[in-house]
Every structure is written in structure tokens, then in C-alpha cells.
Write a structure and sequence with these properties.
The complex is a heterotetramer, with 2 copies of chain A (about 80 residues) and 2 copies of chain B (about 150 residues). Chain A is built from 3 helices and 5 strands; from the N terminus they run βαβααβββ. By secondary structure, chain A is an alpha+beta fold. With about 150 residues, chain B is α+β, with helices and mostly antiparallel strands. The chains are: A alpha+beta (about 80), B alpha+beta (about 150).
Chain lengths: ~80, ~150, ~150, ~80
């Protein structure tokens, strides 16, 4: 699936998107896999309460299942308006 | 409903004129305009707004659709910019039209609260001292409780 | 603060541009526009608005002054017409500017509630079937309780 | 003092303003004097709950004293905005 990063998360990880092969069942499982990769991922995902997630471009929570998902995006709380 | 997510500046007066031209039987129009503000500390040079291109327009449509379902509205307009903006520039605007003023006010207020915390935009401030992301405020998240 | 009570139409776009030109450090501008509405029954030909010339401007100034005292505002503009208006014409407008959106919204909402029930204007509707005064609504009087 | 009438009150009484010589102590006293004049005044002032009053261009209530007042205005509830 495609994993996208925005704002501070993008800066910490150092790229805006990447292709990830995973069998993660939920967003939390995917986060665990990413955290295990490198220090910059561990830092980016250190505090999930400060992160938001969208699956297939819909806001959701970290319990959300990933079955059939094509795109997961991680980002800080939004500051629109 | 009209939603525009764009990098280019928009002409507030022309947008309101176009919005009003499409109305009939509406007694009340409310607009909100968000402007890049230089802070008390001063020194803001540029505001950079990042967004999530695939998601932004549909997230705003969903918010606007909810406003149309909750209040008696004639129409809703949302324009939101991204990219580089300087102090004094308009970031975004909302317009609502309704037969009665209470609906127009409530819907505009609701749209702003949701756009603030649920539309995928992130603001970064570039000052003389460097660049930093604008932190989301607890008060903005708390404001959503008014509508549930 | 700028208050205009006038018979002539006003140019909304030009008024907002002038209002915004005088601002500095304001992040939020809210406008309300009241438009002569043809009612569901139809047939409204003309709306005639009577006012109390000696009192109107000072009554509005008092209301606007209270808004400036209650909220953190940069500026307030109120324009209200009297005389003969046709459906679709703008009756009046309010604009508020504030550092933060909550103040701009609350002040505009407050101004409208008070202008509705405390500024000395009376509306008469002239239809094919004759002329009649618009009755004040209990809901408009009750709306004032929100602010006390 | 000058007594002014607006909207439906003006139409019922048939004039927009008049000069009234009175020793009325309060607005209510003035209303009683006006009511006693003619049928059209009695009709205009039949239901005070449907009327508003301003003394010297300030909204007030019917208990308000008139000592020193130069201008009293009667009108229906306002419909601005």
C-alpha cells in the first residue's frame, strides 16, 4: 500500500510517501512495523496522541482495519481555516 | 455547494458576487475570511500551507454536506488556499446563505470549526528566527463539542 | 467603528475592501448581509423601511460599542438602509474583524440580534394584496437572552 | 414636549409628531392623557405590551419619569436587521 506523510511527520521521516508491503491488520500494527525500521520512524511515531491517520483518504483512528486499504496517511493534528 | 482548493489568490468581492447571484429567496448571507496574521512577536515573513491533495476537497465536501443537512441553507461556498502566503493575504473564505440569519451564522461557525480541525491542512510559519509548524490548539478541538 | 444609516444602496464589495484596508493584525473577518426576501406566499413588490432619524445612528453606536467592549475586536462596521427596497436588494450589512474567529463570529451574531430588536427600524411589506407591517418575532426577542 | 409616533402607531394616530403640553410625571401618565383625547389614541395605546417607548431617543420603559424630557417616541417592537 501507499503510505503518505505530511507536515512534521513528513519532515521527520524525510519523505512524503513510500510503497510499503505489509500484512498489518490494523493501523496500529502498521505503526509498529514502521517504528521498528529506523530511528526516524521511531521518533515520528513516538507519541500517537499527537498524530492523526487517514485510510483511503478518510480520517479514522489507529484501531482501523487495513484489509483492502490502498493508501494510509499519517500527519499531525490539522490546522486549517 | 462549491468547494475550491487552490494555490492562487481569490477575489473575495467577485466570489461573493458570484455566490449571491445564484441565490433566490435567501434573507441572510454570512461570510468568514481568514487572513494571514503577523503575530504579536512580529517577524512573520511567510506562511506555508501544506495539504493532502487527494483528500482535501472531499473532506471539505463532507463537512459542507453536513452543514447543508443540519441547517436550512440555500448554498455554501468554501475556498481554501495552500502554498506560500504573506501577512495580510486571505487564506480562505466561507460563505453561507439561508432564509434566516440564525441558520447562516450557525452553519458558517460550524464550517470554520470543522475546517480548522478536520480538513487536512497544516500551517508553517517562516520568521526571521526560522520555520515552525503552527500547533493545533486544544480550544479548537474543544470547539467541535459545540456541534455534537 | 463606522456606522452608516442611509437611504442609498451600498456597494458590499467596496465596503468590505475599505473595512479590511483599515485592519492590521486581524486574522478573522465576518460579514453578515441582510437581503430583502420574497416570501413563500410570493408577491412582495416593495419593502418600506421606516426609522427614527434622531435615534437610529446613536442606538447602533451603543450596540456596536457594547460589542467592542465585550470581545477582542479590531473594528466594527454597520450599514443599514431605510426607504423603499425591492426583493433581492441588500437591506444592511455588518462586518467584524478580530484576531481570532470566535470573537468575530460572536460579535457579528450579537450585533445582528440587537439590531433586529433594539435599533429603531420598522419594515412594511407591500404586496399585490396590500401593505402590512412585519411583526416582530418572539424568537428575535428571545435571542437577546443569549447575551445576558 | 415633542411626542413622536412611528410605524403602525403613526398610522393609527394619523400624524408623525406633535407638540404636547403636559405635566405628566411618567410615560404611563402621558399615555393616560393621550388615551383620553380621541378614539384613535385609545386604539393606538390599547395594548402597551405591544408598544415600545423612547425618552430623549433612549429606549426605556413606561415607568420612566418625564421630568426634563424634551422628546418622547412611541412605536411597535422594532424589526431591524
Amino acid at each position: 500500500m501507499d503510505v503518505l506523510y505530511f507536515a512534521r511527520v513528513r519532515e521527520r521521516i524525510g519523505l512524503p510517501r513510500e510503497r510499503v508491503e505489509t500484512d498489518a491488520a490494523t493501523v496500529t500494527d502498521l505503526v509498529e512495523e514502521l517504528r521498528a525500521r529506523e530511528e526516524c520512524y521511531a521518533a515520528a511515531f513516538a507519541d500517537l496522541s499527537a498524530l492523526r491517520v487517514a485510510v483511503d483518504q478518510e480520517l479514522t483512528d489507529f484501531d482501523a482495519p487495513l484489509a483492502g486499504a490502498r493508501e494510509v496517511a499519517f500527519f499531525p493534528p490539522m490546522t486549517g481555516g | 455547494m462549491r468547494i475550491e482548493v487552490q494555490e492562487a489568490p481569490f477575489d473575495f468581492a467577485a466570489e461573493v458576487a458570484r455566490f449571491e447571484a445564484g441565490l433566490a429567496g435567501m434573507g441572510a448571507v454570512v461570510t468568514f475570511t481568514g487572513i494571514v496574521r503577523d503575530h504579536a512577536q512580529g517577524g512573520l515573513q511567510v506562511m506555508e500551507i501544506e495539504h493532502y491533495p487527494g483528500m482535501t476537497a472531499q473532506a471539505i465536501e463532507k463537512i459542507a454536506g453536513e452543514a447543508l443537512a443540519r441547517w436550512d441553507l440555500g448554498d455554501v461556498l468554501v475556498i481554501h488556499r495552500y502554498g506560500l502566503l504573506t501577512p495580510g493575504e486571505r487564506i480562505m473564505m466561507v460563505a453561507t446563505a439561508a432564509p434566516h440569519r440564525a441558520d447562516a451564522f450557525a452553519a458558517a461557525d460550524f464550517l470554520m470549526d470543522y475546517l480548522k480541525s478536520r480538513a487536512p491542512f497544516w500551517k508553517k510559519e517562516i520568521t526571521e528566527r526560522g520555520a515552525d509548524w503552527v500547533a493545533a490548539k486544544d480550544a479548537d478541538e474543544a470547539a467541535l463539542d459545540r456541534w455534537t
